[in-house]
Amino acid sequence: MDCLISRFGDHVGEPVTVRGWTHNVRSSGSIAFLQLRDGSGFTQAVVSKEKVDEASWLAATSATIESSVVIMGTVSAHPKKEEVYELQATAVELLQRAEEYPIGKKEHGPDFLLDNRHLWLRAPSQWAIQRIRDTIIHATYDWMRDHDFVKIDAPIFTPNACEGTTELFEVDYFEDRKAYLTQSGQLYLEAAIASVGRCFDFGPVFRAEKSKTRRHLIEFWMMDAEAAFVDHAGNMDIQEQLISFIVGQVLTRRRTELQILERDVKPLENVSPPFYRITHAEAVAKLNELGSDIGEMDDLGADDETLLTRQFDKPLFIEKYPAAVKAFYMKRDTSDPTRVLNSDLLAPEGYGEIIGGSQREDDYDALVARVREHNLPEHAFQWYLDLRRYGSVPHSGFGYGLERIVAWICGLPHVRETIPFPRLLNRLEP
Ligand code: 4AD
Ligand code: MG
Hints:
This protein is of the alpha+beta class. The chain folds into two domains: 5-96, CATH 2.40.50.140; 117-417, BirA Bifunctional Protein, domain 2. It is built from 13 helices and 18 strands. It has helices at residues 54-62, 110-115, 117-120, 124-146, 186-196, 232-253, 255-260, 266-269, 280-289, 302-309, 364-373, 382-386, 402-410; strands at residues 15-28, 31-37, 42-48, 67-77, 85-96, 150-151, 157-158, 170-172, 178-181, 198-206, 219-228, 276-279, 316-319, 332-333, 336-340, 342-347, 352-359, 395-401. Strand 1 (15-28) and strand 2 (31-37) form a beta hairpin. The protein is elongated and about 85 Å long. Residues 344, 353, 356 line the site of magnesium ion (MG).
């Protein structure tokens, strides 16, 4: 019977068939050890020359790193380690004997590994990262559905910008029309809330940012959420519950993967509401104390975020940024109109921004003024302005960057490993 390695615990003593790859092989005398992986997990197959036929022995001893194999055998519990099982082989079949594998013989630099991303994905660390990413995605869908958010799919081709015009990817959209690849589905979700109340999207977004940092990708996955009748403070409540749920799910379901990544789970276990909330003004004061030269009305740079979040043991909201450094759609703070009702959620341990969100400008005249101040093409925003003409309501939303969250939860220094095939300033392949 075919059996996934991850299910070995239920089949101790039983004969099973495993289909997978040999990620390492060694033999000594009349015994061969095949390190096996099948996608669900890792195990060791023990092949004894006396217990298998000649063809199986030949297959076992000629298997190379990353050969594909089918192995039949009996599941046995590891003599010393709990919840570790082995396969006592009774037959070995080599499906394809791999050529000499380019990865793994020595330490490799990031460029070599990224050039070989199509193979590197098989490494245990990369396997662990993708499985944690998958858990984060599922946890997000679960939490959103359980809190009455409806999935709304925003378009990828758009006629206008959402997050500023300097980072737009322009494409030809037949004849002489230009279109832009979406930077965020937010504006479309603002239309959809008047239909379904609360909604979210989840998909790839594109930023033609000429940044080569450990936090920037050209193509990344964003989850935007939007809710009618939710104000700035309520918006932060939603975010801290969602993020706490996601981290909890990873801690419960992905212990093995966190161990493979040698992630210290203590800081993750600390992630529960309420998160810290400080204003931009307070953040600037604190940063100045810590030695940053950030000005009163400046946006936080990546270094500022790193410096600041090293001081906190759980995620931190920074709210009420200067209007001048933030997007046109953010609602002004009535108690200080130079600032907006926004929040950036910063992950601790030096990670920095993982979510950007705000209450939205819901007044028609104020929004028209903002569109003009930002020199945005008014005609392209007519439909968006319409939303303030027909049953406008207070509403808020946010967008999370999946790869930034994966990097933080996995404890990775760079986002490039968090997405299966990263698109970077200098990389489009493989
Ligand atoms: O802060 P941003 O630009 O916000 C928006 O796009 C809003 N429209 C979202 C909304 O309110 N619905 O982007 C949201 C998040 C950031 O907090 C960050 O985590 C991630 O997207 N992000 C990036 N991740 C990887 N590479 C990049 N170049 C990123 N730019 C933003
Ligand atoms: Mg942002």
